[in-house]
Amino acid sequence: MLDIRTFDAQRGGNVLYKALAHPLAAEALSRLGAGIEGRLAVYDPDGAASMLYALHPALPRPAELYVHDVEQVGVARLGCETRAVVELGVSQANTVLVAAFNSGRIAARLAGLLPQGMRLVTLDEARLPDGMLTSRRSYLDRLNFATNFAFFRDADGLSSRLVTANYWSDYGASSVRLWLRLFDGAGEALASWEQEVAPGAAGIVIDSREVRQRFGLGPFAGQLFVHAIGVAGHDVVKYALDTYGHDGEPSLSVTHDANAWPSDRYAGLPAPRPDETVMLWVQNSHAAPIPPGAITLDRMGAEQPVAIGTEIAPFASVQVDVAALLPGLAWPAQIEVRSGRHVVRPRYEVVRAGRTRIAHMNVERADLRPEPAIGTLPASLGRGFVLPFPVLDPTIYRSIVLPTPMAETQADLPLRVDVFDREGQLVAQRFLGRLARSHACALDLAELRAPAGHAELVYDFRDGGGADGWMHALVRYERHAGVPHAAETSFGAHIFNTLMTWRDEPQSYSGPPPGLSTRLFLKLGHESTRSFCVLIYPASAPWREQSQTTLILHDAAGTVIGEAALAIACSGSALVEPEVIFGARRIAEAGVGGYVLIRDTTCRLFGYHGLSDASGAFSLDHMFGF
User: Fold this and answer.
1) What digits encode the pLDDT tens for the residues 19-36?
2) Which one, out of 115, 133, 360, 503, has a CA that is 20 to 30 A from the CA of 176?
3) Is 317 helix (H, G, I), strand (E, B) or coil?
């Protein structure tokens, strides 16, 4: 496992990780390492050296390692026994590398200590250019590293389309631009460029067909690195990513942002059905190769991991056939990926009946333990944690839910399904039992005669079991007849729409709990597709009888060109089709990059968005807010 610190629930993201992992930093560190000759000493004032060498193993190894914390002297690290920095004066090294950014003061302190002729270098030689910094006052400001990866492909009649909006403008950003680098499957940089973002709440679209044409590229299947500059408020690059076919290729699917932070494990990868091929995309997020055996796949709960036996080059993308590593494993069994912190949120691809769909796995938490208090939450929190998901029109679609363990210590999942019609009436329930970690229990909502509306997974402790609040599920949608098309999405539970709080729930993206407002992004269709979303008003306990929702249509420049009101019953849902609400003429006026902002200041809505076309193809994934 890579010796890196990325993200934890208490402190958030580690900015140093992003600073060291940036592709431009990797290039600069490669040049820095090439210029180091002779014996090397490393001074590690902030404990960054281990992560530096994990991410950049080609750097010359230190012969001496110095620290200033007396309690760290004499510790074995990086093949050295750490020494007190005051001993640098008798060092035999030719060069000392200060493993820190913003190192001017540190270098000044060492100036009178270094032996004559010793060269001093620092990580400041791997800084991004000043023009790429949002905050020049502090290099390790989180806003300097608003970065993310996107799966990006233009090959075999399949293209990718990244869509988002300049949500940073709402926090005061006035001049946003994107620095982008496209890597092919081998990890080679095909193109690097900047894209200006219009001021205000403008839409943002990056289409692989346009990129391929602009740079005269051949087919590619790799990843796009996105760095947003000049941002405010959010250091996360959020987006929706369509995979769409053309020139006779009938596929259509959607996924979303890559989470930005590598994790130890990911879960929610479905085993294939007999008529499917499931391919895991392993996309190296770093400039260090992934060694053979560093990533493994395991049937969830089996504890018999099987290794990917080949090396994966820096920034490379490799397809792994799940059935080749885990033969005989079939839906609805599920798979855990032990990624060793080498990749951000992995994608997987399901191929069936000549159509392909891309979906994502989720972070499997290592820091959670079962919390007995969840089983005794007060009545004021009602049903507590709920995981809402749509039930699509049962005359056209099957809606299938597969609970997915999403924490390393989840031994069981005591769950129930509650089904609601669109008016918020509870119409069916089923206790799923105390599901084992290795369960293969997928429920087709048709068994409950569920109408169009939504369902919610909730904890149910009638047979005992543990809970940690990190309840997740994969939901699959399939057409009954005609076009053999399917879509799938996955997400986790929260406490929704109650004034009472428990720890950080109900969550709020822009302040302390309770989160009782909505700001969701709904992209519009492109070419022959139309967009839609299912908005759900989940409530852990009774809240306002109806939402007071506003749908705000923006054109590509961010100008508001239409508004519509919508009322959704508490515990109800609504199907929203922009072309029906605003009319085809107004949607055409919004243009490429236009979108709908869904606002509600009275309650927290949860949504799932997608595209559909006249052939019956459709996509679906959960929406994002900002």
Assistant:
1) 999 999 999 999 999 999
2) 360
3) strand
